[in-house]
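User: Could you go from structure to sequence for me? I need the amino acid at each position, not a summary. Structure tokens:
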């Protein structure tokens, strides 16, 4: 008989007693269940007992979580949570250190349970633990257990961190700042201060003022992974609670103290594997450091700022003016302004503005005249529609794009000049605009690195190379802008392809960043190896994987289908030859209007051909005067191997003819003769060369055959797998069981059953 759905079969155990196997009715009150269990063991006062899960954290079972009990669960009978909390809190007041230590150990074990936590807090358990921590009579195991129990109880959120007293927090700070301290105490003290800092702004300021950054650096340099992790946690918590200006000041100080180099060498590349918690804190540190770029990213360029005009001018000079020379040397003012505007356009700046803003190279004395209106715009160094400042008024990336361009021009001057001058010498439609590319690339990098986005509470996606390089964002830009130029050339792009190029570069950067290269040089090597052709190949492979066409069983099925489908393609090609095609004759006077028709006989033994008139439909095969037996054909020639192509030379028109030309050589008496063709289209060329190859018993290797075969394979595979839709196909076939140890078994068919 099947038991009711709300009845589960479980075991209940108790120390020094025989376990009970019972059927627990979930509809019955928990107090009644406890009464039955206690009665079975002859235990009075069932209200003094409770049920706990025997495994894990030994959580108490209540009416709220009793649905977690499943068939086969093992429970244990223990003291009720209120009585257990009362007993342990009395133990904390024991005069003996051993009694307090034992009580704290049990408290730490039961603290993760919410039911027990409520009972402890309701009996002022946190205050009693706080007294042990503040007194600091024992700086060893007892203090560590008290801190751990306090943290576990507070993690439930029953009591707010803001209720902690200032003397209590200062006492915990003292444990962090002490030089000689038990190794188990300081990680717990750091963890407690981290929670205080994240939960209470007021107490967080106290922690920030009491715990110097140098002290945290000392903890980070101790070869204790737990202590390093908790020190990093408090450091990131302090940074998150600081204002933007304070955060910048703190990070600048930490970088000056070589924190980045220490993290890179002694934490990321440590012999001990990096823990998940440390990975999260490194992600937060990276995000906060990159967040310092957000103000520049959100600030548009001010066309009337003298400093920013000089920076734009420095960009132009670095690309076009040799060191020590000036644009105005030996030139009139109008000529100088015109040349300046043209050079900014070569840099890739292009906007439209009927009232030009001040030019970067405009002297302060001319500013008043330029602001006077369009009728004085001739005094501007730029003609209308040539103001570079407006390209950088877009936010994002704002001034961050200008910072990147300046960094590239100053720290990689040869690469910068090569980029600009190389594209200046190309045709207008093929040049890669440096400024436009830099602006878009800065936006792209900000998106990939999540600049300005709030930190995730669980993410661990930090980049090791960020800690291996000063000015990592600008250095990454320098590599990426050269990659963009390289990809632009590989794609043979024009101005209309700008968005396509940036999409490919985005994919190249995203794929390489996902590999988490450990250094900038390794990133450079990997991203340059990911060419445009490789990106296309990866896209195709991923598409096939998504369709499931690259699973080993599917590949095996496709191989089995190929011979049949190749036979189908061969049949189609021969039928196309039987239908015939009109070809144009090519003479020494180039293309003529004369046409001739060729087809294959229905029995596939003879090629029939002859001249036809313009405007007349295909003739009947039997009316064609010429015949060529297939048995006499020696070989099929294509392209430059054809005799009628060799006779034409190498003109541009003959190159087009070469791509469509094919010939068949055949025996004409004792001599070799040729029947020459020029197909009307590339498709006809593929169909005829495939058909003739099939007649000669050669493989059909045209591009059209490959496409047709792939299409037929895809369709046939999908048809065969219709019944397996949404059924996962294993990568490997199921293992074949080993043969039996002997084959001494048989069935005698002559014996008839009664």
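Assistant: Here is the amino acid at each position, in order:
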């Amino acid at each position: 008989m099947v038991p009711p759905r709300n009845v589960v079969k479980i075991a209940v155990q108790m120390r020094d007693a025989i376990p009970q196997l019972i059927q627990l009715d979930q509809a019955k009150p928990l107090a009644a269940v406890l009464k039955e269990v206690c009665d079975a063991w002859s235990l009075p006062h069932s209200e003094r007992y409770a049920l706990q899960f025997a495994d894990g954290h030994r959580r108490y079972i209540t009416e709220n979580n009793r649905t977690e009990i499943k068939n086969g669960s093992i429970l244990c009978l223990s003291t009720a949570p209120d009585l257990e909390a009362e007993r342990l809190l009395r133990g904390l007041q024991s005069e003996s250190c051993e009694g307090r230590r034992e009580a704290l150990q049990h408290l730490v074990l039961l603290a993760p349970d919410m039911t027990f936590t409520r009972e402890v807090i309701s009996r002022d358990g946190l205050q009693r633990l706080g007294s042990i921590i503040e007194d600091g009579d024992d700086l060893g195991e007892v203090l560590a257990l008290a801190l751990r129990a306090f943290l576990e109880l507070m993690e439930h959120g029953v009591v707010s961190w803001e209720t902690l007293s200032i003397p209590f927090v200062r006492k915990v700070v003292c444990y962090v700042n002490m030089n000689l301290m038990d190794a188990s105490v300081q990680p717990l003290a750091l963890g407690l201060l981290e929670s205080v800092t994240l939960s209470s702004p007021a107490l967080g300021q106290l922690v920030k003022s009491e715990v110097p950054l140098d002290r945290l650096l000392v903890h980070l340099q101790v070869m204790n992974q737990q202590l390093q992790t908790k020190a990093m946690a408090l450091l990131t918590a302090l940074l998150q609670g600081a204002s933007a200006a304070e955060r910048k000041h703190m990070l600048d100080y930490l970088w000056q103290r070589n924190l980045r180099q220490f993290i890179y060498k002694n934490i990321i590349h440590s012999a001990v594997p990096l823990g998940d918690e440390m990975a999260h804190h490194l992600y937060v540190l990276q995000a906060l450091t990159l967040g310092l770029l957000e103000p520049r990213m959100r600030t548009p360029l001010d066309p009337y700022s003298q400093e920013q005009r000089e920076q734009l001018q420095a960009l132009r000079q670095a690309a076009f003016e040799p060191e020590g020379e000036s644009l105005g040397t030996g030139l009139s003012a109008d000529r100088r302004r015109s040349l300046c505007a043209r050079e900014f356009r070569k840099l890739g700046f292009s906007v439209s503005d009927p009232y030009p803003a001040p030019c970067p190279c405009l002297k302060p004395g001319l500013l008043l005249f330029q602001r006077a209106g369009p009728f004085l715009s001739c005094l501007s160094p730029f003609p209308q529609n040539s103001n570079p400042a407006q390209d950088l008024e877009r936010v994002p990336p704002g001034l961050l794009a200008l910072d990147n361009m300046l960094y590239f021009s100053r720290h990689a001057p040869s690469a910068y000049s090569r980029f600009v001058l190389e594209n200046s010498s190309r045709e207008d439609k093929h040049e890669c605009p440096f400024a436009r590319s830099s602006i878009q690339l800065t936006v792209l990098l900000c998106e990939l690195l999540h600049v300005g986005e709030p930190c995730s509470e669980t993410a661990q996606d930090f980049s090791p190379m960020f800690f291996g390089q000063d000015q990592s964002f600008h250095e990454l830009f320098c590599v990426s802008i050269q990659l963009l130029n390289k990809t632009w050339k590989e794609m043979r792009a024009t101005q209309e392809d700008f968005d396509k190029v940036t999409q490919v570069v985005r994919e190249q950067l995203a794929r390489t960043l996902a590999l988490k290269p450990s250094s900038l040089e390794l990133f450079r090597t990997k991203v340059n190896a990911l060419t445009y052709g490789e990106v296309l190949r990866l896209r195709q492979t991923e598409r096939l994987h998504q369709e499931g066409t690259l699973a080993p069983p599917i590949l095996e099925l496709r191989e089995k289908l190929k011979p049949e489908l190749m036979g189908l393609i061969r049949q189609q090609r021969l039928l196309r030859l039987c239908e015939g095609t009109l070809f144009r004759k090519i003479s020494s006077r180039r293309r003529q209007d004369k046409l001739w028709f060729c087809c294959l006989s229905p029995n596939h033994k003879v090629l029939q051909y002859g001249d036809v008139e313009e405007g007349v439909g295909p003739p009947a095969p039997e009316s064609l005067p010429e015949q060529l037996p297939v048995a006499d054909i020696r070989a099929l020639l294509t392209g430059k191997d054809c005799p009628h192509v060799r006779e034409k030379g190498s003109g541009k028109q003959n190159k087009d003819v070469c791509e469509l030309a094919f010939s068949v050589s055949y025996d004409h008496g004792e001599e070799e003769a040729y029947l020459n063709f020029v197909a009307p289209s590339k498709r006809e060329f593929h169909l005829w060369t495939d058909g003739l190859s099939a007649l000669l018993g050669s493989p059909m290797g045209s591009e059209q055959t490959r496409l047709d075969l792939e299409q037929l394979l895809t369709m046939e595979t999908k048809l065969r797998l219709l019944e397996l839709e949404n059924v996962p196909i294993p990568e490997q076939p199921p293992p074949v069981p080993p043969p039996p140890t002997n084959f001494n078994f048989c069935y005698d068919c002559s014996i008839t059953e009664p």
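One structural detail worth keeping in mind: The chain has four domains: 7-79, 85-290, 291-320+341-349+382-550, 563-709.
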